[in-house]
């Protein structure tokens, strides 16, 4: 493929890589990630548009999740949510570039995704070399055509000397084009030096900025300079390789709906039916047990020596693992099982649907267990995320059932893409830390009259991110909040406020909406929080609440609980 504006690809790749260094070097995570993703995406789109390359509208659909999740990186502060947003954003960008010119990402099977990802990663290693090699060959062919034209002109009567003079002028033309810029730069440097000197003497802040800029070139910063230059070049090379794949290679790979599977079915129908039947029998026994104990309201649990909370405490994460393993097992069997006769296909589908139904009941059991445990001990991030994950696993089960009924299991990849986007969308809209604050404080208030002292885990509330601050402040200023709970919340907010006083990078590229909102709300409550003095000693923050001094972190629950 002949590229008319090939220089734009490496220029935009280099600019995006330099922007990464400017945006992230020694700066907190904030809006800088969104800006970098924006530059990286349009760095590939603008040259493609200038080349007038046709891009299917289905490819542009991937920009929707890319934009949403990249924006949410500077709106949500909860660590797992940020991690999901970053991973989904990078995955959407990779998918966008991998399928830029074919737009068939929604038709990919799992094998297509693996093959495309492998090709894309391999291209990131050699794509930049291929880009320069092919563009050099294109330039050579153009030069050859020009030489042929010159020879034709010689035959018609031009002198060899004039022709050689014309060729030498062509060879010297690039140098002649650069020379004026170099001369102008040499003339400008001393003038800029003199003017910069006087401006620095006139303004101390400007002088500080100049000194900081020159400090970067000191010999003691040589290691840092080399390291930063190295990763700038690596990022630029990877982006250039990705742009090359998107513009040149992405059109070559078109998924074939009638393509034969990578692994031909080899397992007999009887064997797979025995496997599914045995698993279904095991699950049926477990489900019957759940109806006898868990679904009965816990009347029979005490007879076995467990309290209701103790029984619910065990196993909800293991049950989620069982559900995931069952889905993987069913998919593998559906791919490798020979179903040559209709009866064999119907039997396999029936056993598969029974498996899906039993797994759905097991997920319901896990959901109820988790609800019971949260009612007794409160919400944590892991428990909240498990709730959301179980809901989406249940929806995934429904999708798998539909695919099996319609004999279209090769579309599982698209269902998984929707699952990932839906899960990420849910935890962003839910706002995990804010949800935990609402649930745990409401639970403590509801149980307040039944207990002599609050069972609110203030230490865990302190460990939450800036997303939790608005609701903590809302409960703190609410007149209906009991005094002892309000004091605990005041201690948590005072600890959070004390950390704001620690010097932080205020650069606009590190702006984060959640942190900014939290800092504003805490500053507004600073006078009210003076009754909770905070101190720092031995690398630990302490707060005094009603004459009692305790660590801000308080009691930390098991992070895997």
> Judging from the principal axes of the Cα atoms, what is the shape?
flat
Helical content stands at over 70%
How many separate helices?
20
Q: Which consecutive residue ranges, at least 5 long each, have pLDDT under 50?
A: 159-175, 555-561
Strand order of the largest sheet: 1-2-3
Biggest β-sheet strands, sense, barrel: 3 strands, antiparallel
Rg measurement, Å: 32 Å
Q: What count of domains describes the coordinates?
A: 3
Mean model confidence by pLDDT: 80
The SS-based structural class is mainly alpha
Describe this structure in words.
With 561 residues, the chain is an all-alpha fold. The chain has three domains: 185 residues, no CATH class; 152 residues, no CATH class; 118 residues, no CATH class. Helices cover 70% and strands 2% of the residues. It contains 20 helices and three strands. The protein has a three-stranded antiparallel beta sheet, covered by helices on one side. A hairpin with a 2-residue loop joins strand 2 and strand 3. Helix 1 packs across helix 9, helix 12 runs parallel beside helix 14 and helix 14 runs antiparallel to helix 15. The C terminus is likely disordered.
């Amino acid at each position: 493929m002949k590229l008319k504006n090939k220089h734009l690809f490496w220029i935009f790749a280099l600019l995006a890589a330099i922007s990464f260094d400017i945006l992230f070097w020694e700066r907190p995570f904030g809006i800088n990630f969104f800006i970098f993703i924006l530059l990286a995406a349009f760095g590939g789109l603008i040259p493609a548009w200038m080349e007038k390359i046709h891009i299917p509208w289905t490819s542009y659909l991937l920009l929707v999740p890319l934009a949403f999740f990249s924006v949410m990186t500077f709106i949500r502060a909860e660590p797992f949510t940020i991690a999901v947003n970053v991973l989904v954003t990078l995955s959407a960008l990779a998918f966008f570039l991998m399928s830029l010119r074919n737009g068939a990402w929604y038709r990919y099977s799992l094998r297509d995704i693996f093959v495309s990802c492998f090709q894309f990663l391999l291209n990131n290693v050699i794509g930049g070399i291929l880009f320069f090699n092919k563009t050099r060959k294109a330039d050579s062919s153009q030069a050859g055509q020009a030489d042929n034209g010159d020879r034709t002109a010689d035959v018609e009567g031009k002198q060899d000397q004039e022709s050689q003079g014309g060729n030498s002028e062509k060879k010297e033309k690039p140098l002649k084009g650069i020379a004026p810029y170099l001369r102008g730069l040499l003339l400008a440097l001393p003038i800029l030096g003199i003017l910069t000197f006087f401006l620095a003497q006139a303004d101390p802040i400007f002088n500080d900025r100049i000194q900081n800029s020159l400090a970067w070139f000191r010999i003691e910063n040589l290691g840092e300079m080399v390291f930063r230059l190295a990763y700038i070049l690596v990022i630029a090379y990877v982006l250039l390789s990705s742009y090359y794949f998107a513009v040149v290679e992405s059109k070559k790979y078109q998924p074939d709906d009638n393509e034969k599977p990578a692994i031909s079915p080899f397992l007999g129908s009887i064997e797979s039916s025995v496997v599914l039947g045995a698993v279904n029998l095991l699950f049926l026994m477990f489900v019957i047990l759940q109806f006898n104990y868990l679904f009965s309201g816990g009347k029979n649990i005490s007879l076995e020596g467990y309290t209701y909370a103790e029984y619910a405490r065990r196993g909800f994460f293991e049950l989620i693992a069982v559900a995931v393993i069952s889905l993987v097992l069913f998919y593998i069997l559906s791919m490798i099982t020979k179903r040559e006769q209709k009866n064999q296909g119907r039997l396999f589908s029936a056993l598969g649907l029974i498996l899906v139904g039993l797994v759905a009941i097991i997920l319901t059991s896990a959901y109820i267990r988790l609800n019971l445990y949260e009612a007794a001990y409160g919400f944590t991030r892991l428990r909240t995320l498990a709730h959301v994950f179980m809901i989406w696993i249940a929806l995934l089960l429904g999708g798998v059932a539909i695919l099996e009924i319609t004999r279209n299991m090769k579309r599982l990849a698209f269902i998984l893409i929707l699952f990932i986007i839906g899960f990420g969308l849910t935890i962003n809209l839910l706002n995990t830390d804010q949800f935990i604050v609402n649930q745990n404080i409401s639970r403590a208030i509801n149980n307040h009259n039944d207990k002599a002292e609050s069972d609110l885990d203030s230490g865990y509330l302190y460990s939450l991110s800036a997303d939790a601050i608005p609701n903590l402040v809302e409960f703190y200023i609410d007149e209906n909040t009991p005094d002892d709970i309000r004091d605990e919340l005041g201690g948590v907010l005072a600890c959070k406020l004390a950390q704001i006083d620690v010097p932080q990078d205020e650069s606009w590229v590190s702006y984060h909406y959640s942190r900014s909102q939290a800092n504003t709300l805490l500053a507004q409550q600073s006078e009210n929080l003076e009754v909770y003095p905070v101190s720092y000693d031995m690398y630990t923050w302490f707060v005094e609440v009603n004459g009692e001094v305790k660590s801000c972190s308080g009691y930390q629950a098991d992070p895997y609980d």
